[in-house]
TrEMBL record:
<dbReference type="InterPro" id="IPR012826">
    <property type="entry name" value="FliN"/>
</dbReference>
<feature type="compositionally biased region" description="Polar residues">
    <location>
        <begin position="44"/>
        <end position="58"/>
    </location>
</feature>
<feature type="region of interest" description="Disordered">
    <location>
        <begin position="20"/>
        <end position="67"/>
    </location>
</feature>
<keyword id="KW-1003">Cell membrane</keyword>
<dbReference type="InterPro" id="IPR051469">
    <property type="entry name" value="FliN/MopA/SpaO"/>
</dbReference>
<feature type="domain" description="Flagellar motor switch protein FliN N-terminal">
    <location>
        <begin position="32"/>
        <end position="71"/>
    </location>
</feature>
<dbReference type="InterPro" id="IPR001172">
    <property type="entry name" value="FliN_T3SS_HrcQb"/>
</dbReference>
<protein>
    <recommendedName>
        <fullName>Flagellar motor switch protein FliN</fullName>
    </recommendedName>
</protein>
<keyword id="KW-0282">Flagellum</keyword>
<dbReference type="Pfam" id="PF16973">
    <property type="entry name" value="FliN_N"/>
</dbReference>
<comment type="similarity">
    <text>Belongs to the FliN/MopA/SpaO family.</text>
</comment>
<feature type="domain" description="Flagellar motor switch protein FliN-like C-terminal">
    <location>
        <begin position="79"/>
        <end position="149"/>
    </location>
</feature>
<keyword id="KW-0145">Chemotaxis</keyword>
<keyword id="KW-0283">Flagellar rotation</keyword>
<dbReference type="InterPro" id="IPR001543">
    <property type="entry name" value="FliN-like_C"/>
</dbReference>
<comment type="function">
    <text>FliN is one of three proteins (FliG, FliN, FliM) that form the rotor-mounted switch complex (C ring), located at the base of the basal body. This complex interacts with the CheY and CheZ chemotaxis proteins, in addition to contacting components of the motor that determine the direction of flagellar rotation.</text>
</comment>
<keyword id="KW-0969">Cilium</keyword>
Amino acid sequence: MNDKTADNGARDEWASALAEQADADLATGHGTDDAWGDAMAEQAGSSKPGTGEATNAGDSVFKPLEGEAKAGTPRELDMIMEIPVTLSVELGQTRLTISELLDLAQGSVVELDGLAGEPMSILVNGYLIAQGEVVVVDDKYGIRITEIVTRSERIHKLNK
């Protein structure tokens, strides 16, 4: 058998396979060029019955908010209530060079930009949430909140 005969045999096999596929597509009503149509038909089969809307995977995974969650009691927030956050109070700030930092020793005084009697910044995980004043109760320091930062101010500072 020469190469030409082998090529013709392979072509005949391909031609016969393609003809067989075309016959099968005609029998089922689907053309090989209609892959998008097949996909759309499959999607239509997964739609909500009678609505023509496609179903959302989230509908079966996530429970819809009902009853008390809509009424304002966030029961879904219960699981995040135990997440620890760091609350810190900032007296003031300053900028030092590395050489000035290395020159610090016990007893050194570092000047801060905060003034005596000025409200202290209260930060949660590094974000300003309130202002307050220092109080001493039973030989321990505390802070009395004097002003809470509004939501719009917090968002504005996050955008900087």
